[in-house]
From TrEMBL:
Region (Disordered): 19-105, 640-661
Gene Ontology biological process: DNA repair; replication fork processing
Source organism phylogeny: Eukaryota, Metazoa, Ecdysozoa, Arthropoda, Crustacea
Molecular-function GO term, any one: ATP binding
The protein's name in its UniProt record: SWI/SNF-related matrix-associated actin-dependent regulator of chromatin subfamily A-like protein 1
Compositional bias ranges of the Polar residues kind: 32-73
Positions of the Helicase ATP-binding domain: 189-346
A GO term from the CC aspect: nuclear replication fork
Pfam families xref list: Helicase_C (PF00271), SNF2-rel_dom (PF00176)
Keywords: Hydrolase
Length: 661
């Protein structure tokens, strides 16, 4: 059943209370940090942390990448770090209130007990040299490690608080300019502050595509623009450019689909996959792109790989470089270096080895150096935020987001099998004005069913990309053949998932939902659009993917509400995977038109025009096919459903469909 008005009101009220509670907690924590550092009026603070005897090969790497990204807090004033920019080899004996010097000019340092065996002094960054000088008498008994010069150089001219000026960005295409939310404008301002070389590391669903296009368009004089992206997202970017930058002529946008495609040097925007980048590097470098967007930049994380080498090479000729990634370091800080090298030819540490020693807990083993650790992570965070990166979590900007967002994702036509004789014949049958009701049902059923087969590979490619990015999501489909292909695809990636279709009993559904809700390791819920669109609560995911469309928008919105319901405190992102040249060309506008009618009658508050891309093919047949579908009565559609159930009832044993993989 769809959510009632009272349920929607209650859900919005709970969401508002959660936002207020979260804001109050963040404010209290910020006040605590300010009070702790109020005695330090300086360009920044540094924490001096005594530790055990210094031994590089025995460094313990307890810091994790998840804490590095999920526990960052917004800056509340002076910069500080609790890593070990200056460390001594052992604790001062018996005197926790020990002060390094009795000289009246000694730096002011506040004391903090970290644990029973560890404490630290916090002092102004400007007093770093004074602190070292005051500790000179201890050099006979202790080993000191000062802050590296590159850290001091980065922060020596930094103001106590980073105030990014709001520059005039009205030159951006008006449609895009008006669509930017306040936090999205902040990233554009920061990108301009960094001279157009930035890593935008926002959470998924915060509009990194819009931010990148806005910043790139601000530097229109530095085009042509190259957009590098996973293969499955090439045409989603193509659609985004057409929608948000209407001032760019359509014939000035090219998508490179194969190693044989001609690369036109005269166009404004070129879209290419990372795989083709390595194969066509010389041809692309010959264009001399001055602005480059690297979508999902963590795909260049493997140092010395062909992809990372090619990315670094082509970025060297660009004046503006924009990296986009919600997870720039998926498991280890070492994966950041190749991305930083794209932004800055010679990153702040100089060599990777120096970076590894400082931030990766580098250890020398019998097989060479191991850089798989993580050290000085808070210091690295400060440097990234100062020189390279802006990152906002959904929880930090939730008040600016709608409770539900829709996107239409155009699948790669090269992976969609739409140019077959069967698909051509079915498309013609759809426009037959003289067909009887039974023939209409058959035409609809056949075309819709064949579309599922045609989309399968492209859908699976997209799902693999989501899995590689660490996402947890719901995936809806209608046909058993596509549900089976999606399940097989997830199994090949060795990921846990649940599957619920019409064969799963009510008791079994409850167990599967609990597994998905409570276990982080269960990454995907593969669900039937018609059999799992009601009665399920799956709010542990805030991403919903529709591998197929459905002619009844009410069914789609009910399916969306498996994640967007009472208990969900995050903004839900809904993605519809659409293939051009298939039945999707006609189902999408049909869904839009039906919802518009319901909305005008006050029967639905949903509106699929909210999706940030709206148009598919410009075929002249679309209106007649919409009329064709709208002529089908509810009995006709019910007959289609019955035929679907009969055709798929023996596809797979129930025991396999109702377990967690």
């Amino acid at each position: 059943m769809p959510l009632t008005a009272e349920q929607v009101k209650l859900m919005e009220e709970n969401r508002r209370k959660a936002l207020e509670k979260r804001a109050a907690a963040q404010k209290a924590e910020a006040n605590q940090l300010v009070n702790k550092n109020q005695s330090h009026v300086s360009a920044g603070n540094v924490t001096f942390t005594p530790s055990s005897p210094f031994n590089p090969s025995a460094v313990k790497n307890n810091a994790s990448t998840s804490s590095f990204y999920s526990k960052f807090q917004p800056s509340t004033g002076g910069k500080s770090t609790s890593s070990t920019p200056a460390s001594v080899s052992k604790l001062p004996p018996k005197n926790p209130k020990y002060t390094p010097s009795t000289n009246s000019t000694r730096p002011v340092a506040s004391f903090q007990l970290v644990s029973r065996k560890k404490f630290c002094w916090t002092f102004s960054l400007a007093d770093h040299q004074k602190m070292l000088e005051s500790l000179n008498p201890l050099l006979t008994r202790y080993q000191l490690q000062p802050l590296p010069k590159f850290v001091l150089d980065i922060f020596k001219n930094s103001p106590p608080e980073r105030n990014i000026p709001e520059v005039d960005i009205s030159s951006i295409d008006p449609k895009l300019y008006q669509a930017l939310l306040p936090f999205q404008r902040q990233s554009v301002y920061f990108g301009i502050h960094l001279q157009g070389r930035i890593l935008i590391a926002d959470d998924m669903g915060l509009g990194k595509t819009l931010q990148a296009l806005a910043l790139a368009h601000y530097y229109l004089s530095d085009w042509p623009l190259l957009i590098l992206t996973p293969s499955s997202m090439k045409f989603a970017w193509d659609e985004a450019v057409k929608i948000w930058l209407p001032s760019v002529p359509l014939h000035h946008i090219q998508v490179i689909c194969s190693g044989k495609d001609f690369i036109d040097k005269e166009v404004s925007v070129t879209i290419c996959s990372y795989d083709l980048l390595t194969r066509r590097l010389k041809d692309l470098e010959a264009v001399n792109f001055r602005t480059i967007i690297f979508d999902e930049s963590h795909l260049t994380k493997t140092r010395n790989s062909k992809r990372a080498t090619a990315a670094s090479s082509i970025s060297a000729q660009a004046k503006r470089v924009i990296l986009l990634s919600g997870t720039p370091a998926l498991s280890r800080p070492e994966e950041l270096f190749s991305q930083l090298q794209i932004l800055e030819r010679k990153p702040f540490t100089g060599t990777f080895h120096a970076f590894g020693l400082r931030y990766c807990g580098a250890k020398e083993t019998n097989f060479g150096w191991n850089y798989s650790g993580a050290t000085n992570m808070q210091e690295l965070q400060l440097i990234l935020e100062e020189k390279f990166m802006i990152r906002r979590l959904k929880s930090q900007v939730l008040s600016q987001l709608p409770s539900k967002q829709r996107q239409m994702i155009i699948l790669d036509p090269g992976s969609v099998k739409c140019n077959t004789s069967t698909m051509d014949t079915l498309a013609k049958n759809m426009t037959n004005e003289f067909a009887r009701a039974m023939e209409k049902r058959g035409a609809l059923l056949s075309y819709y069913s064949e579309t599922a087969k045609a989309k399968s590979k492209a859908v699976c490619d997209y799902i693999v990309d989501l899995l590689e990015n660490g996402k947890k999501f719901l995936c809806f489909a209608h046909h058993q053949v596509l549900l089976n292909d999606i399940s097989h695809c997830i199994e090949q990636q060795s990921k846990e998932y649940i599957r619920i279709d019409g064969s799963v009993s009510s008791d079994e559904r409850k167990k599967l939902c609990d597994n998905f809700q409570l276990k982080d390791s269960v990454r995907v819920a593969v669900l039937s659009i018609t059999a799992a669109n009601t009665g399920l609560t799956l709010t542990s995911a805030n991403l919903v993917v529709f591998a197929e469309l459905f002619w009844n928008p009410g069914i789609l919105t009910q399916a969306e509400d498996r994640a967007h319901r009472i208990g969900q405190q995050d903004s839900v992102l809904v993605q519809y995977l659409v293939a051009k040249g298939t039945a999707d060309d006609y189902l999408w506008p049909l869904v839009q038109s039906k919802l518009d009618i319901l909305s005008k009658a006050g029967l639905s508050k949903d509106n699929f025009h909210e999706a940030d891309t709206r148009h598919l093919s410009n075929t002249k047949a679309s209106p007649s096919i919409i009329d064709f579908l709208e002529e089908l009565s509810q009995e006709d559609l019910a007959a289609v459903d019955d035929a679907e159930k009969q055709s798929s009832s023996f596809c797979e044993p129930e025991s396999k469909r109702s377990k967690t993989y």
